[in-house]
């Protein structure tokens, strides 16, 4: 969890527990500066604030932080002018710390060793390995793209972890595009843009997850453009992930799209049966679970959408066995996955037609209307909902979804997906329809 995330949750606790005046006087004026190891550095506007926090609020803060992170986190209060000094101190400590303790935000469990290679990810794996062995040289930037839960983040962390292992002095920063955006906004609001820039531009490797969320955020894109240029010119490695190719992200500036294409873009597709079995076996081994091979095969046959769901299914089976105090059998797996396998396993390649049929039925239209070209609102929205559901609930590729909708282009499917994602937030009827239809489709 990053400092801003943690702070916003802590602030919420304060907001509900203290008076409005206390909140606005003491809490709202505090700015989280850094979260490192178990210390949260907080900037306060005056010595009076410092005393008040120390005497009256710090214990509460420690308690909230524990509730949120299940870890002991201690505050360190600093005043603005003390900050420089404290930063120097932090930097001093940094030099002495081994890199693995630095604030890279890397998940130590996402390594190449724990990544199972299969048909759908072997190219991405190979490219990631090359980058981790010689960052900034061969593929810069490296862009990994593909559907939800297929291992993009895992590979990205694996690159970071391997680089740190090979060269502990390397400065690595992993962020999601949302954290980058938040950091940037906070930096502007607190007048700390220079510090923000230093933080992002003085790294050797920058890993940015889910860049599709940069869409529509012009200010952030501008800042990222400059960050990218600085790092690139200095030969620093940039790795990006996205759920689609940059030129398919609407509202991503052309200059970013073109830069992202300078290096190598590799996609990850859904794992085939053999890979799914291998992933399950690896997970069972790492959890010290004894699961017979035929059971692993059975689960892998049931869940063919993405790895996250596959892992979730195994955990669910494990939990069921524990709860029922019984060994894992096929019957137990069926029971555990009952709610899941109705939809996940069915919603594969043949299911786009089923979605089209159910959506047409729901809106009292004919499937041919959904697949056709008519552009009246009464048909366009249901068509886009059907495309949205096809993308969300199946592992069918975008071009194939387009073909099922009467030979439409895959960019039309992406556009429909984005449009419905936005409409669901704005229009209750659309949200309801998607919810209802997901239920009908067993999701
Ligand atoms: N090939 C693999 N071998 C082992 N574990 C994998 C593999 N692919 C994915 N996983 C695991 O599946 C889970 C989901 O993967 P990950 O978070 O990397 O997906 P993602 O593609 O980044 O998804 P999203 O688009 O939602 O961010 C993680 O726990 C990851 O470790």
TrEMBL record:
Gene3D superfamilies tied to this protein: 1.10.1750.10, 1.10.8.60, 3.30.300.180, P-loop containing nucleotide triphosphate hydrolases
Region (Domain IV, binds dsDNA): 322-443
Domain of life: Bacteria
Span list, region Domain III, AAA+ region: 105-321
Domain AAA+ ATPase stretches: 138-269
Keywords on record: ATP-binding, Cytoplasm, DNA replication, DNA-binding, Lipid-binding, Nucleotide-binding
GO terms, biological process: DNA replication initiation; regulation of DNA replication
GO molecular function: ATP binding; DNA replication origin binding; lipid binding
Subcellular location: Cytoplasm
Quaternary structure note: Oligomerizes as a right-handed, spiral filament on DNA at oriC.
Function, as annotated: Plays an essential role in the initiation and regulation of chromosomal replication. ATP-DnaA binds to the origin of replication (oriC) to initiate formation of the DNA replication initiation complex once per cell cycle. Binds the DnaA box (a 9 base pair repeat at the origin) and separates the double-stranded (ds)DNA. Forms a right-handed helical filament on oriC DNA; dsDNA binds to the exterior of the filament while single-stranded (ss)DNA is stabiized in the filament's interior.
Name of this protein: Chromosomal replication initiator protein DnaA
């Amino acid at each position: 969890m990053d400092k801003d995330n943690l702070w916003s949750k802590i602030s919420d606790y304060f907001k509900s527990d203290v008076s409005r005046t206390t909140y606005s006087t003491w809490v709202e004026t505090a700015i989280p500066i850094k979260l490192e190891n178990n210390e949260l550095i907080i900037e306060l506007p005056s010595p009076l604030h410092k005393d008040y926090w120390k005497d009256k609020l710090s214990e509460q803060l420690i308690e909230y932080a524990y509730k949120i992170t299940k870890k002991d986190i201690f505050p360190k209060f600093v005043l603005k002018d003390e900050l420089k000094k404290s930063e120097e101190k932090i930097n001093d400590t940094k030099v002495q710390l081994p890199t693995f303790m630095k604030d890279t935000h890397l998940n130590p469990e996402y390594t190449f060793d724990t990544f199972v290679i299969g048909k759908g990810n072997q190219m991405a794996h190979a490219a990631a390995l090359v980058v981790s062995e010689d960052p900034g040289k061969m593929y810069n930037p490296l862009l990994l793209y593909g559907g939800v839960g297929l291992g993009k983040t895992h590979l990205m962390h694996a690159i970071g972890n391997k680089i740190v292992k090979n060269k502990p002095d390397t400065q690595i920063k992993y962020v999601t595009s949302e954290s980058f955006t938040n950091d940037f906004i906070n930096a502007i609001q607190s007048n700390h843009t220079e510090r923000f820039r230093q933080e992002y531009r003085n790294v050797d490797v920058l890993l940015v997850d889910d860049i599709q969320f940069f869409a529509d955020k012009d200010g952030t894109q501008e800042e990222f453009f400059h960050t990218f240029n600085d790092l690139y010119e200095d030969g620093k490695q940039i790795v990006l992930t996205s759920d689609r190719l940059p030129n398919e992200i609407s509202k991503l500036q052309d200059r970013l799209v073109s830069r992202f294409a300078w290096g190598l873009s590799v996609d990850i597709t859904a794992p085939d049966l053999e890979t799914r079995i291998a992933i399950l076996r690896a997970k069972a081994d790492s959890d010290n679970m004894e699961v017979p091979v035929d059971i692993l095969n059975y689960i892998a046959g049931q869940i063919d959408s993405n790895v996250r769901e596959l892992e979730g299914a195994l955990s669910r089976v494990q939990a069921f066995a524990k709860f029922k105090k019984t060994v894992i059998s096929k019957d137990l797996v069926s029971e555990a996955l009952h709610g899941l396998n109705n939809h996940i396993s069915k919603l594969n390649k043949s299911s786009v037609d089923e979605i089209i049929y159910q959506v047409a039925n729901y809106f009292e239209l004919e499937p041919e209307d959904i697949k056709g070209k008519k552009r009246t609102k009464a048909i366009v929205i249901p068509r886009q909902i059907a495309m949205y559901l096809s993308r969300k609930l199946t592992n069918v590729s975008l071009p194939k979804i387009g073909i099922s909708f009467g030979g439409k282009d895959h960019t039309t499917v992406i556009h429909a997906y984005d449009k419905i994602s936005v409409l669901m937030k704005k229009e209750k009827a659309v949200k309801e329809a998607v919810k209802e239809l997901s239920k009908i489709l067993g999701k």
